[in-house]
Write a structure and sequence with these properties.
Tick-borne Encephalitis virus Glycoprotein, domain 1; 5-stranded antiparallel β-sheet; 2 helices; 30 strands; 38% strand; cell projection; bacterial flagellum; FlgE/F/G-like; Flagellar_FlgE/F/G
Length: 410
Amino acid sequence: MLRSMFSAISGLRAHQTKMDVTSNNIANVNTVGFKGSQTVFQDTLSQVLRGGGQPAADRGGTNPAQVGLGAKLAAITTNFTQGAAQSTGRSTDFMIEGDGFFVVQGPGGEQLFTRAGSFDFDANGNLVTPDGSILQGWMAQPDGTVNANGPVGPLSVPYGQMVNPTSTSAGSIKGNLPSDVPAGTDYQLGADMYDSQGVLQKVAYNLSKTGDNTWDVSVVHADGTVLMPATGLVFDAAGNLTTPPGPDYALAPFTPVGYPSWTNPVTMTLQGLTQFGGANTLAAPKPDGYALGSLQSFTLGNDGTIMGVFSNGLRQPLGQLALASFNNPGGLAKAGNSTYRVGDNSGAAMVGLAGQGGRGVLNAGALEMSNVDLSEEFTGLIVAQRGFQANSRVITASDEILQDLVNLKR
């Protein structure tokens, strides 16, 4: 009788653990990035009442007679399937679509990992979790390049950061010049250039037809100053640029005269310029160079690149988020606050870029919700309750049998 009671007690303990896990899942049904858990039971050692025997010449074999000694908890596994997406519209909310974890620096500098992508700014401009852990990644160099091979560090978005002006060094013209227009036809394209101090200089690209299959191209300032003297263009009968040789050709660099603050040369490039019959499709892509600007906002790319948007129109990378992957995510140890730390059986953290090495891509303005299925959890709750109830009934029945045994004395 005592054996059956102790077996039932082990069942009570196992089902109580199942209740604990299920209740934790239900409690976190709306926790961002939460991953539900499941309990796995297994039987304990069995007592052998009679050993088995091998077949002999005059008799058959016999199976062992064994009585189990109850159940025990085998494992509590974490379900890392993707949770549903919830759009928030906040630029600092990030969601991982696929495998991987955000890397954060927890208290004391400990490196932790999380799927919860709700971040905000602290007083120093760092991107932090609600509990103050700092999001990790790689900050960009002054020229906008990101070295993802170096060690990770805190990511920050320095609002109000100033970017120095850059002088224009290149412009271009592309498209088609109509072949059927008469000599003397002029076309003009406006462009914004910047001198060495970042002062806006309005210029115009002038193209004038001088004869059959011949044109002149020049660059003139808005005040009438000729910045680049007229250069002759010659097209063949098929409409292709032959002088200077096309389809792409960089004209001789020119240094604007009469503008002391404009010191560097500018190169004009003809990009696939043609002369066919039909419409005028001339276009002048925006020249390089920018005025003085300050950081106004940022966007997040699918690869984790934080792209800064400056008041002067410049878009330049500020940094890039780091993601970590593991050979066995189920081996991670929960560290609280929706974070994990490296466990004995998780494998080392493989930190890299989103979208590479099996890591998922990022989506800004959205959060990954809990992957807990309430219908499944309520079913598990009923199963755990009935299992607990059945084991308690075994204890009651065993107690009644023991009572009957004691009453034999009377």
